[in-house]
Amino acid sequence: MATDAPTDGGQSLAARVRARFEGPNTIGNSNGFWVGFLVAVAALVAFPLVGNAEQFSLFLVLSLLGLSLSVVWGYTGVLSFGQVVFFGLGGYTFAVVSINFATPGGITAAVLAGVVGGGLGAAVLGYFMFYGGVRDVYVTIITLVATMVLHTFMAQTAGSEWTIGEAALGGFNGMPDIPLLKLGVGAASFQFMYNAIPVWVPGFGTVELDPFYYLALVLLVGTYLGLRALVNSDYGRAMVAVREDEDRTRMFGYNVKRIKLVVFILGGALAGLSGVLYAARNVFIDPTVFTLLFATLPVIWVSVGGRKSLLGAIIATIAIEYIRVTLGGELALVMLGALLLGTILFLPNGIVPWVHRLARQNRPAPADAEGPETPDPTEASES
Amino acid sequence: MVNGINLALQFLDSFAFIVLAAAGLAIIFGIMGVINLAHGEFILVGAYATTLSATKLGLPLAAAMLVGTLVTAAFGVVVERFIISGAVPNWIGQETVGRNLVEPLYDRLADSMVATFGLSLIMVQGARVVFGNSIDTVGTPFGNIAYGAFSYSTYRIVLSGVSIALLVGVYYIFTKTEYGMTARATIQDEETARALGVDTERIYMATFAIGSGLAGLTGALFAPTLSMQPTLGDQFLVEAFVAVVVGGPSVVLGTALSGGVLGAIQAVFTNLYGTFFGRIALLAAAMVALRFLPDGITGFIEAVQSRRQEGQ
Amino acid sequence: MSESETESESRPLGPNVRQTAAEMATGDRTDTLLQTDGLVKRFGGFTATDDVDFGVAAGELRCLIGPNGAGKSTLLKLITGTYEASEGHIYYDGHDITDLEPHERVQRGISMKFQVPSVYGDLSVRENARLPIQRFADGAERNERVDRAIEAAGLTGYEHVDASALSHGQQQQLEIGMAASLEPDLLLLDEPVAGLDVAEREAIAERVTRLNEEEGIAFVVIEHDTDFVASIADEVTVLHNGEVFREGPIEEVKADPAVQRIYLGEEE
Predict the structure, then answer these.
(1) In terms of Cα–Cα distance, which of C15, C17, C16, C49 is closest to C33?
(2) Sorting pLDDT into bands at 50, 70 and 90, what band is B2?
(3) DSSP state, A285?
(4) Which chains touch A (3 or more CB pairs under 8 A)?
(5) First vs last C-alpha separation in chain B
(6) I want to staple A168 with a disulfide (CB 3.0 to 4.6 A). Which of A163, A317, B57, C38 is the partner?
(7) Where are the domains of chain A?
């Protein structure tokens, strides 16, 4: 419990640090969970040795987009169909800035510009909506319409007059000449795209590893942990209170409009970061990121994964995108549609929380007993 | 002078398009509190059924349109029973494990959006799998009108007239028929309606059927002018959606007014800057409208009228 | 939370408001904490609150009664800012708060318990109790206050139970506790004993009285139960058709034949 005094005298530093990441707002607060988490991260680190890291890095990048919606929708109750607006803004901003300043320093600045672009877009739209008193489903509708506006707008930027500096926006054809991702300044820079680092691994000999994959992985794990700490903090509790009952939370002295705006901006910046990495990875961006289908994908991932669960968002994004890419074509979309329909009807809280609940029910004694805020097993409570 | 005619025709075009696209959705949203994001695909069903009836069964166009409308209405009933109200899955659940499996989607605006989007994915790709990437079209009847150096499809002018007739028809249904009265009572207060013996389930089923039928009619009417692809519903969805929400609680007046206002804005901007910007202007106007008139145009009108009555 | 200013400091009250405040001054209750001036609220064609001048002194325990639809809940929501006034002003602690947002009014010392019990169902009792407190207290002080709030609500031992699993009476106690934990100067309660049995009602009556006498919190309580009202109220305000119909000690008001008539629906 962040900033609550420990109830017993003096916990160890490790226990206090760990307590920041645990709480009722996230799944998994036991030793078993963290062990499993470390195993999973280790597996992801080792993955490029046995699997297609290039393809997988896309799923890691998209997971950031899923997380952005999880924070905004799952934790603050704002269903935004517009996360892709900020994703696209991030990607396009990155493209424009990096094409114009194709030096490592310029590209690094372009990354920041993309994140800021996403956040700024969210600030404008969020202010317009929340400080205008727009509520609930009308927020969803306005974000959906905003996506359509951007799609229509970017699609008609085909003419040569739609050029910022050296960068032509390209209309339906998109922007193909994005420079390879190089971070740093001048000589102290490192190329992440289309770069293969030879590393000697015991048992595998010398393998060529893709640094972009590891960049995406580090950013994803870092973001996950950061968000975990956020939602388990005082501010996170306020976010959840806003989701549960806005009016009541207002009556406890919370500035609900500001909370929604701040979280929305955070979500926009995160989506922007995802967009930057997406554009960097594909070395390309076009208006398909603003289509209705793409706008709904994050909603699908988060609905299926469990909207109140950060981990669920990540797992669902990776799983669904993997299946979608593997199946391909119409079959994938039918599957997606069926999955979405089935989840909303039968498991409205998502799959990962349902699995988690089943797993806990089947344990002889709840393994979460030592967690800080989980229900006492002898009291009547939900599992 | 000619530009004035162009503008007028563009306006009629936009108006008809918006009204016809939105009517079915407005009824479902207004009465059941469900946002049907598969609305475009219901229009698809109507369009395809009409086209196939005309090309494969050789029916005359008017009869084919009737078939298209009825097929879509029937399809709507199926969707309502299986997905919106969950009646069929719950019946299965009761018979097998003794409990309900799903909650109805009424008044669950966000959930209904997401669930029906899932449905639309299935429908579009299903259509692609069954019918391929496109099917043969039906020609546009009635030819063209010429004025000055321009010509304009007569059929599209006819559609404007149809859209007005449609509004009148829906108004009649909701004010003069028993179904209409009961449906409006149910919107006002479902519990009371039920206590008075109204079978609210039937009302919802009938309403969804009517809304679907209207979507089918739209598909049928526009079928001669569109290329028959599984994605044809996309072009209707957003405009329909936006018009319904901007229109507000009154189904007929709301749809008419938002069709008029948004249609006018779209026509003007299309005339000056091209179709892309016409669309952008429409969408931007909708966002502004939702921000300042959260109850839609008719909601705002109701508030103003009452304030006038108070002698303000 | 801020303390009430004494009346000797000049306050931006309108002329007729000062008059009303003076009218209400009896004995030691000379500090007007809350005063509405010509408050009006319309919903479309319906006037829910009609030119209401309503005042509460610091530390007073006022009950708001009247037939259903009289506008009692509306008046409370106007005071908290949940509803925006169509016309009129609201003065609190010497300031015009008419244009303030609800959370700003709460930060100045107004607190409310809603009519429909709405604890955060999925959160535990402790998590519920912590939410209002975490905004202004940290560390050990926070834990203490949360413990006290839970104890005052009679829910020691239920700390980790989900709030939705509590009985109705327990939820009401929890909600009152949460509202009181903000240490307000004015606490608004909308039907705190609806649906409770006699013992639970007495417990709440006792709690409200204690908070009023020991902590000096002013109350405005909407309730229909006349016994409950009689056991706690200093004064009673009767609302009818959105207007203030009568005001005064409960015995007088109860005996007033006009009041009895409006309850029977015969007065217009």
Answers:
(1) C17
(2) low
(3) B
(4) B, C
(5) 43
(6) A163
(7) 53-290
How would you classify residue C157: left for phi > 0, otherwise alpha for psi between -120 and 50, otherwise beta? Answer: left
| Interface residue of B250, B298, B310 to substitute, partner C, most C CBs within 10 Å | B310
The answer to whether A323 touches A346, Cβ cutoff 8 Å, is: no
> Using CA atoms, how far apart are residues B278 and A231, in angstroms rounded to an integer?
42
Q: Highest mean pLDDT: which of A49-53, B100-104, B284-288?
A: B284-288
Alpha carbons C192 and C208: distance in angstroms, whole number: 10
Mark whether C43 and C111 lie in a shared domain. Answer: yes
Report which DSSP code applies to A175: B
- Rounded Cα distance, A262 and A254, in Å: 13
> Which amino acid, A365?
A
Q: Which of A237, A247, A248 sits opposite C134 (nearest CB)?
A: A237
List residues bridging with B146 in a β-sheet.
B151
Asked whether the beta carbons of A97 and A340 are under 8 A apart, the reply is: no
Find how far residue A161's CA is from the centre of its chain.
34
Task: Copy the structure tokens of residue C69.
Answer: 């639809």
For residues C38 and C49, state if they share a domain. Answer: yes
Q: What angle do CA B224, B227, B231 make, to 5 degrees?
A: 125
Q: Does residue C16 contact residue C88 with C-beta atoms inside 8 Å?
A: no
Domains of chain B with bracketed CATH:
4-311 (1.10.3470)
Cα–Cα dist B106/B86, whole Å:
10
At residue B148, does pLDDT exceed 60? Answer: yes
Q: How many residues does chain A have?
A: 383
CB contact under 8 A, B129 and A330: yes
- In chain A, the residue whose alpha carbon lies closest to the alpha carbon of C175 is A248
How do residues B244-256 score in pLDDT, each as one tens digit?
A: 889 887 888 888 8
| Residue C50 with chain B: CB contacts under 8 Å | none
Q: Do A334 and B290 touch (CB under 8 A)?
A: no
Please tell me the distance from the alpha carbon of residue A83 to that of residue A69, in angstroms, as a whole number: 7
Asked if C159 and C178 sit in the same domain, the reply is no
Q: Distance (Å) from the C-alpha of residue A337 to the closest C-alpha of chain B?
A: 4
Tell me which residue has tokens 């299903």: B126
How buried is B209 (Cβ within 10 angstroms: 0-12 exposed, 13-18 middle, 19+ buried)? Answer: buried
Burial zone of B133 (CB within 10 Å; 0-12 exposed, 13-18 middle, 19+ buried): exposed
**What percent of chain C has pLDDT above 90?**
24
Q: Where are the beta strands (DSSP E) in B87-149?
A: 144-147
Both C115 and C144 in one domain: the answer is no
Answer yes or no: do B309 and C42 touch at CB < 8 A: no
Q: What ipTM describes this predicted complex?
A: 0.82
Tell me if chain C has a CB within 8 Å of the CB of A133: no
CB atoms within 10 A of CB B294: 16
Subunits next to C (3 or more Cβ pairs <8 Å) are: A, B
Q: Is residue C221 part of a domain?
A: yes
10-residue mean pLDDT series, chain A (383 residues): 50 78 77 85 88 90 95 90 94 92 88 95 94 83 90 82 82 85 81 84 83 93 94 91 90 93 96 96 91 88 86 91 85 85 84 78 50 35 30
- Statement to judge: residues C25 and C153 lie in one domain: no
> Cβ–Cβ of C42/B306 closer than 8 Å?
yes
Per-residue pLDDT, B189 = 73
Angstroms from C143 CA to nearest CA on chain A? 7
Indicate which CATH number applies to the domain containing C34: 3.40.50.300
C137 and C248 in a single domain? The answer is no
For residue A141, what are the CA distances in angstroms to A85, A134, A144, C188? 13, 10, 5, 36
Q: Please list, in sequence order, all residues whose beta carbon lies within 8 angstroms of the beta carbon of residue A41, skipping any fewer than 6 positions away.
A: A221
Domain that holds residue C132: 120-165
CB burial of residue A125 (10 Å; 0-12, 13-18, 19+): buried
Put simply, whether C115 touches A (Cβ < 8 Å) is no
Instruction: State the pLDDT at residue A268.
Output: 96
